[in-house]
Design goal:
The complex is a heterodimer of chains A (326) and B (329).
Chain A: E1 12-23, E2 26-37, E3 41-45, H1 52-59, E4 67-72, E5 75-76, H2 81-84, E6 88-91, H3 103-111, H4 119-128, H5 144-156, E7 162-166, H6 174-189, E8 193-198, H7 201-207, E9 210-215, E10 218-224, H8 225-230, E11 235-241, H9 243-252, E12 257-259, H10 268-272, E13 278-282, H11 288-297, E14 301-308, H12 312-320
Parallel strand pairs in A: 3-8, 3-9, 6-7, 7-8
Antiparallel strand pairs in A: 1-2, 1-4, 4-5, 9-10, 11-13, 11-14, 12-13
Helix pairs in contact in A: 4-5
Chain B: H1 4-17, H2 20-50, H3 54-69, H4 76-94, H5 104-115, H6 119-128, H7 133-138, H8 141-145, H9 151-185, E1 193-196, E2 199-201, E3 204-206, E4 211-214, H10 215-243, H11 247-267, H12 285-289, H13 300-324
Classes of the chains: A alpha/beta (326), B mainly alpha (329).
Chain lengths: 326, 329
């Protein structure tokens, strides 16, 4: 039951309509529907094993759907791959290129597989991904980040209208991730539709305009990223001294719920930062200044207040009303 | 619409850059001198023994084989093989032609005869077994199949490149063994007559069809048959490479089949339906030199047809599977 929450504008580049896939006797993809429009970055969010990669493989005709239809720029991907895939650049899982060829030879290889890509175009994409220094070296000498960039160069070669990236930040360092984000944003601003999968909510939040959330082969929700995240009441972490008095004051308020740390799931980084005098509440974050004032007036020292970003798991709990992911 | 030529160029480029073909050349360059040396020692020994009189040597061979026919310890199948051998040697002797005239050309002819059913197929597997499964092992198949090119075109270009390299391997085997053995035995010998056309029935040889051909012509006929065998083996290995995901598994499957073939050739004369297996039909050049077929009822045209059917079926399976299959990992 997909809930459409926000309509973007612009022409639809990729349309996925009621796609299902049965492998063996199991439906591993069960009704996936969404559209991706030009100029937008579309996130595909779900835990590992939810069916993200299987769906992506269906988008590029590596796997044939059992039911449903996938069209790119109006062409059916499975029935007319020669036309449809012309508009698609993709990296499925890792950027696997021929390690015994140089970067340049790899690009030449893929250039020969699509119309209208000449040497000048190859030089252009090499420039775009800033690989010009090492492009004539064997790929076996490249770092993971360079292979990632070569993969993107390969995907951009045919001037696609849709770019599909599967977990693009895997294996990149923080600097590389930041560069990649800016790079993808630039591409989208130029009118390209970008489809990005990830299992990290924060990454989707930072990068995407709209998002589809997938779990166990079903799309749970499609909508604007901000709306989706905003529907969650955030957690607030308090560090108080004296602890018991502070805790009591918080517990007395009707608009604050004390959370049991054993029952909620938190990022490891948050847990690591929790001292003995810490507690977590579920509340509207606009109440923070008021509550701080109350605590201080009562003589409780507020050592720290942190808003904790909701995790993907929290989002799932909300969307599935208690059904946990596994 | 993508033309096939750039795709074939891609595949050839990958085979070359992967250095598979160089490895094959290297194997030949290392192994052929070893065989040449062994052959040289044989020639030296018989020269000492028979004072360079090849007639004496052949006569001795005939006598040895005839003597062994009287022994009870030798199985009946071997005896009939030897009877045929004796009749052929006698024919050479009667017509005053040395079947083992030492020369680079003779060495090449004998080397090719011996390598057709195992050695050359192994060289071919070095390329064929890796063509599709190699792309799956490394994951590059995903890049290859997400381009706007129909899958049959991708497979067809791989197959075409393979057949080109198969031809190149057969040619290089010939050239390398001729050049290396020629250094030792001399480069002459293209016009030496070789007898062909022995009709074998039971343990007698029908000599009525036997005629002499110059060795160069014999080599051409032999080359054609070896090329045919090589193409069939290549297409089979190619199919296995489509079906099996890892290159290692793909090589093992084909190796097992080929080795089973040599074992069966030596023992399967009682099991006559084994003649429909491709592996026992690979010794096509034996029909040319008059070696008895491993199983009763096999002939040159029979083997050609059996191999053609195996090749056709493997091409059909390769395309059917490759164009339909989901690439799951």
């Amino acid at each position: 039951m997909a809930k459409e929450m926000k309509d973007g504008s612009g022409t639809v580049v990729l349309s996925v309509d009621g796609v299902r896939k049965k492998i063996g006797r199991k439906w591993i993809i069960d009704n996936v529907t969404f559209d991706v429009r030009e100029g937008e970055i579309f996130g595909f969010l779900g835990p590992n094993g939810a069916g993200k990669t299987t769906t992506i493989r269906m988008l590029v005709d590596l796997i044939r759907p059992s039911e449903g239809k996938i069209t790119v720029c109006g062409y059916n991907v499975n029935k007319d791959p020669e036309k449809a895939l012309q508009y698609v650049g993709s990296i499925v899982e890792n950027p696997e290129v021929y390690t015994y060829l140089t970067g340049w030879e790899n690009l030449q290889h893929f250039a020969r597989m699509q119309p209208g890509v000449d040497e000048a175009r190859i030089a252009e994409v090499v420039d775009t991904v800033r690989l010009d220094q090492r492009i004539h070296d064997k790929v076996s000498t490249y770092s993971l980040g360079m292979r990632q960039r070569l993969g993107i160069a390969q995907a951009l070669l045919g001037r696609p209208r849709l770019l599909i990236l599967d977990e693009p930040t895997n294996g990149l360092d923080p600097k590389g991730i930041k560069e990649l984000r800016e790079f993808i944003r630039n591409l989208a601003d130029g009118g390209l539709a970008v489809f990005v999968s990830s299992h990290l909510l924060s990454e989707i939040q930072l990068l995407c305009d709209r998002v589809a959330i997938i779990s166990k082969g079903r799309v749970l929700a499609v909508g604007g990223v901000d709306e989706l995240v905003a529907r969650n009441s955030p957690y607030v972490l308090w560090e108080l001294e004296p602890f018991d008095k502070g805790r009591q004051l918080l517990a007395e308020r009707p608009d604050v719920i004390l959370a049991d740390p054993a029952e909620i799931t938190l990022d490891d980084s948050v847990i690591a930062g929790m001292g003995p005098n810490s507690l977590i509440t579920i509340m509207d974050d606009s109440l923070i200044p008021e509550i701080v004032a109350v605590l201080v007036m009562a003589g409780v020292e507020v050592r720290g207040v942190h808003k904790i970003n909701p995790t993907l798991e929290q989002l799932f709990l909300k969307l599935t009303e208690g059904e946990t992911i596994d | 619409m993508i033309n096939l030529l750039p795709l074939i160029r891609n595949e050839c480029l990958k085979i070359i850059k992967k250095k598979r073909f160089y490895v094959i050349l290297l194997i030949l360059i290392v192994l052929v001198p070893m065989f040449t040396y062994a052959q040289m020692r044989i020639a030296e020994r018989s020269r000492d023994k028979f004072n360079s009189d090849w007639r004496l040597e052949i006569q001795q061979q005939i006598t040895d084989n005839e003597n062994s026919l009287g022994s009870d310890r030798i199985p009946e199948e071997w005896k009939s093989y030897r009877r045929i051998f004796v009749q052929q040697l006698q024919y050479y002797l009667d017509h005053n032609v040395n079947p083992n005239e030492p020369s680079g050309v003779t060495f090449t002819r004998q080397f090719l005869d011996n390598s057709v059913s195992l050695f050359i197929p192994l060289l071919i597997m070095a390329i064929a077994s890796d063509l599709v499964s190699g792309e799956r092992t490394t994951g590059t198949i995903k890049m290859l199949l997400t381009r706007p090119v129909r899958r049959w075109k991708v497979l067809f270009s791989k197959m075409t490149a393979l057949l080109m390299f198969v031809s190149l391997i057969v040619l290089s085997t010939f050239i390398i063994s001729y050049l290396i053995s020629g250094l030792v035995f001399g480069f002459k010998g293209f016009n030496v007559p070789v007898f062909t056309g022995f009709q074998i029935s039971g343990d007698t040889v029908d000599m009525s069809g036997v005629h002499a051909v110059p060795q160069w012509k014999y080599l051409l006929m032999q080359g054609g048959l070896i090329w045919y065998v090589s193409v069939v083996v290549a297409l089979l290995a190619f199919m296995v490479s489509v079906l099996v995901r890892s290159t290692a598994a793909s090589i093992v499957v084909m190796m097992a089949a080929l080795i089973a073939g040599t074992i069966l050739t030596n023992m399967a004369s009682a099991w006559t339906t084994a003649k429909y297996l491709f592996m026992v039909n690979l010794g096509l050049t034996g029909y040319l030199s008059g070696t008895p077929a491993p199983i009763e009822g096999m002939s040159l045209s029979f083997s050609l047809i059996v191999l053609a059917i195996w090749a056709a079926v493997s091409v059909i399976i390769s395309f059917a599977v490759f164009t339909k299959r989901d690439i799951l990992n």
